[in-house]
Design a protein that fits this description.
The complex is a heterodimer of chains A (about 300) and B (about 375). By secondary structure, chain A is mainly alpha-helical. With about 375 residues, chain B is mainly α. Chain B has a domain of about 230 residues. Chain B has 14 helices and two strands; from the N terminus they run E-H-H-H-H-H-H-H-H-H-H-H-H-H-E-H. A two-stranded antiparallel sheet of chain B has the order 1-2. Classes of the chains: A mainly alpha (about 300), B mainly alpha (about 375). The interface between A and B is large, with 45 and 45 residues.
Chain lengths: ~300, ~375
């Protein structure tokens, strides 16, 4: 039982890492009033760019950095469309997801052709010193990126609630007219929030290709971006509650992996679908109490 | 000095039809960089991309074949979006219809085609509706955002398909993860000899017509569009908004389900996990490119079908990855959306400013100073 629990907790943290990064990113965007459905594509693109640059340079951190830069560019593109031009956020976000997915696949074909087995690299190693701690070693010996993701939760909370910049982000997400009247540059603030958001999302994707898998596959994101969007509603746009949501999803995912091997006579696809169904159920429970940022989905026009 | 000024006013009417053309040119210019990266000549590539597919009957008919599911998913998305319901789940609903078709197609092996085919289409419609039902109910009853739930269900149904293909439906003869072949009587008849074009294309065109009729000629369509324009206003005007959304969502899901039937009974004849390379998502591109106008959607579906076949043609001829087609589609959507914003603006030459402004009345001048 102890071994089971320790393994479960360790896996939960691992599975939750890309979700934590993705949700923190989406949180910045949504608190600034922009629903960024480009998240799925941005994570995919981050996984691809991170994998290519990490593999080509042999420096995995350079890969993460490159992914973040790509994510920032994706965020700025979302800004150009939804902030500057005032295009529907739903459609521009989905368009960006389709564009980045297409671009990544195009690049993948160009570089790797049509390999029968997905190309792989030597991935990040888990922190070696912490892995040797007795009993808890498996839990503590995570990837550095997992620790960074966990540390980013209080950092993002602090940024959003304790800094002037965070106040501006929340202000343009709640009432851009008032923020503008108070001298906040609504457009600039939204652009910056989207850039931060894109960088975080892409880092989440890079974690998958550079740490968890050490490979790039077509199905590498598999709807995780959409899960992030659900987790934010579930967490009511609060960084810490969103973290619990990510851990819950990670926990259910880790649990289903273990249930598959216990010999229960159920199709494994049922377990794979379980985290998604739990998320939908959680949304149904959270539904009515969700307090959306008041200006979410509304383009701001300055006359 | 004369100056150019951009002001907010409706652009002249003759500009509007030009906007998609301008958007297409900008898109091709942007994506030319990818062609160059793939070490091909952009002009040659776009010749293979846009002209070659239409230069022979065989490939032109393939464009129509490719457009068939797109007509249907485009119509499905248009139906939901018109009512302001963001059904992003056409992909999943298509798979639901495909599952129903694969099942009915094997069950109905004794029925004549005249019975089997209508039942298949109806079954796919119902299956798509059923898969669209939970998000629609959650939206109407519990105010749960439909974007997220429809997207999540797209992931879920892929697991269902995987379960069916690796479990009860695995082909007993070959052992491949594909369902048994559907009965000959359940196969949609071909429209032309020696070509893959099938009845699904006609069904798609009829549904586009029906879409036009419902949206512009019925009270249901009026209620849906009113809801889409503004829920509060529609409610105030006496529209049962919940019912309008539910109807739009279910019919949208049903149409997407028919797209699944059309692919199974017209092209593949058994269920495989790669029935759709994202037709449901492409449907969103098509609905928006068509401006949510049924006939615009029909044209957009044909054009996007051309882009898909074009991508394959370029890939074969010049070795440019076929994903070029996907990139061009998505880029075209974004550029077009951006470009349409400019139909609300007008560029004007402003002649020389008057030298001196008329003097303000004294009281106004005082106001300015005190403010």
């Amino acid at each position: 039982m102890e071994v089971f629990l320790i393994g479960l907790i360790a896996a939960t943290l691992r599975v939750a890492t890309p979700l934590i990064l993705g949700t923190l990113g989406e949180l910045f965007a949504e608190r600034a009033g922009i629903l960024n459905l480009g998240i799925e594509g941005t994570m995919f693109c981050g996984a691809f760019v991170g994998f290519v640059v990490g593999g080509a340079t042999g420096n995995l951190w350079l890969g993460v950095l490159a992914a973040i830069v790509a994510g920032i560019l994706a965020g700025l593109l979302m800004g150009l469309l939804s902030v500057r031009l005032g295009v529907s956020q739903h459609v521009s976000g989905l368009g960006i997801t389709l564009l980045l997915t297409g671009l990544s696949l195009f690049g993948f074909r160009l570089i790797f052709g049509e390999p029968r087995i997905p190309p792989s690299i030597a991935p990040f190693e888990r922190l070696p010193i912490l892995s040797q701690v007795p009993i808890l070693g498996e839990i503590l010996g995570q990837y550095a990126l997992t620790y960074i993701a966990l540390a980013l939760v209080p950092v993002c909370w602090w940024m959003l609630y304790r800094t002037n910049f965070g106040l501006q982000i929340r202000a343009v997400g709640e009432n851009p007219e008032a923020a503008d009247a108070a001298g906040v540059n609504v457009f600039l603030t939204r652009y910056l929030a989207l850039a931060i958001a894109g960088g975080l999302m892409a880092a989440g994707g890079a974690f998958l290709s550079l740490a968890q898998l050490g490979a790039f596959t077509y199905g590498i994101i598999a709807g995780r971006g959409w899960v992030c969007i659900a987790l934010i509603i579930f967490g009511n746009w609060q960084p810490v509650r969103v973290l619990w949501g990510a851990l819950l999803f990670g926990g259910v995912s880790a649990l289903q992996l273990r249930l598959q091997t216990t010999g229960l006579d159920l199709p494994y696809e049922m377990f794979l679908a379980l985290p998604y169904l739990v998320t939908i159920a959680a949304l149904a429970v959270a539904g009515r109490n969700a307090t959306y940022p008041a200006a979410l989905l509304k383009a701001y026009k300055r006359e | 000095m004369a100056k150019l000024r951009i002001e907010r006013a409706a652009a002249p009417l003759w500009v509007r039809p030009l906007i998609p053309v301008i958007a297409a040119v900008i898109t091709l210019a942007l994506t030319a960089t990818l062609v160059v990266l793939a070490k091909a000549n952009p002009f040659e590539a776009y010749y293979y991309f846009l002209v070659v597919p239409l230069s022979s009957w065989v490939s032109a008919i393939e464009v129509l074949v490719k457009s068939t599911p797109l007509l249907l998913t485009g119509a499905a998305v248009t139906f939901a979006f018109s009512a302001g319901y963001w059904n992003i789940g056409a992909e999943g609903q298509l798979y639901a219809g495909a599952i129903a078709a694969a099942w009915l197609g094997t069950v109905l092996h004794e029925a004549p085609a005249l019975v089997a085919i209508p039942i298949m289409l109806l079954g796919g419609f119902v299956a798509g509706m059923l898969w669209a039902l939970p998000p629609a109910l959650l939206k109407v009853k519990l105010a749960v955002d439909e974007v997220v739930t429809t997207l999540l269900l797209n992931s879920v149904i892929l697991f269902v398909v995987s379960y069916l293909l690796n479990g009860p439906w695995r082909d007993p003869v070959s052992g491949w993860p594909q369902s048994p072949e559907i009965a000959a009587s359940a196969i949609l008849p071909k429209l032309l000899p020696r070509a893959r074009l099938h009845l699904g294309f006609i069904v798609g065109l009829l549904i586009i017509l029906a879409l036009w009729f419902v949206l512009s000629r019925t009270s249901l369509g009026l209620k849906m569009r009113a809801t889409g324009l503004g829920m509060e206003a529609a409610r105030y005007a006496g529209v049962n908004v919940g019912r309008a959304i539910l109807t739009a969502a279910l019919i949208s899901g049903g149409i997407a389900g028919i797209a699944g039937v059309s692919e199974i009974a017209g092209i593949h004849f058994h269920l495989i996990d790669a029935i759709s390379p994202g037709y449901g998502y492409t449907g969103i591109i098509i609905a928006m490119l068509g401006g949510l106008n049924p006939f615009g959607v029909g044209l957009a579906a044909l054009f996007v079908g051309l882009l898909s076949i074009g991508g394959q043609t370029v890939s074969r001829a010049l070795g440019v990855p076929a994903y070029l087609g996907d990139v061009v589609q998505a880029a075209l959507l974004l550029v077009t959306l951006g470009a349409f914003i400019f139909q609300n603006y007008r560029i004007r030459w402003i002649a020389d400013e008057p030298r001196s402004l008329p003097p303000l009345p004294a009281s106004a001048e005082n106001d300015l100073e005190t403010n």
